[in-house]
């Protein structure tokens, strides 16, 4: 019985692999590619980035994914410019959607969390090409009073061969494969909690003394960096909550506090309204309609998710759940067009209007 099941499963895996190869072949046909692009492009794309720089050699893949090299960023901007794309701020995207101006080939760059490299590496490139961009800031990372657990977890995994958890459980992490596996496994566990930091501190209480909050705070912008960029019309500072929680798993008042208090703190520093937000983690598992309603009630004009897709005029009815295109390091800048038009078409199974 078990064997039979295995056989059937094996066949269906084979079938879906054949299907994938077939779809990939189809997507390599330039006429089909152009058709999908025409259907799936909408008015433009909001790019999602995190870090701009080169990862150190021991960075685990879960954190490595966040990096785009300065060279790739520059080449991609230059390539997209040569292809006739225009770069707009998130405010201009809002204006385009709400005033029903019909445009196409628009790109809005956004960077999440508020890393120092956004100022040191990315800002000079955006400035040189006159490209507007938005940084969504998690205020407690700037103030250094919350652990960005993905870095602390990586350090713990890299610095030991055996994990000793609070419940006495011991897990071997001597090989790179084991460390990679453990990173994603713990990530999954932490994201089942509203406050993953708290859960992290509980699970890794044995490592409490080795966690250097100041070390992690240095990876993030300081208020002076933020205020300097805030004075540049190219830069929009948006909110990314106080502590980077899983909003969907928090109670209503806590959801509002995370999004509202971040807004208040940012406004105090920037001396202007903060009207745009990015939801931490931002997918179906981490946000829902109630979260979006809280953001609307606070007064945010736009909200960006991590759902993959392009922006269409109909998104004027769902400004607080805009999809984005994940920008990662690719071997050639031309591949960004596959990420924009083809890849999400496949993952979304042909559905083009993506919202929560
Ligand atoms: Zn984030």
From TrEMBL:
GO MF terms, alphabetically ordered: hydrolase activity, acting on carbon-nitrogen (but not peptide) bonds
Signal in keyword set: yes
Biological-process GO terms, alphabetical: carbohydrate metabolic process
Lineage top rank: taxon: Bacteria
Keywords, alphabetical: Signal
Keyword Signal: yes
InterPro entries listed in its UniProt record: Glyco_hydro/deAcase_b/a-brl, NODB_dom, Polysacch_Deacetylase
Every NodB homology domain range: 105-356
Protein name: Polysaccharide deacetylase family protein
Organism in which the protein naturally occurs: Chitinophaga oryziterrae
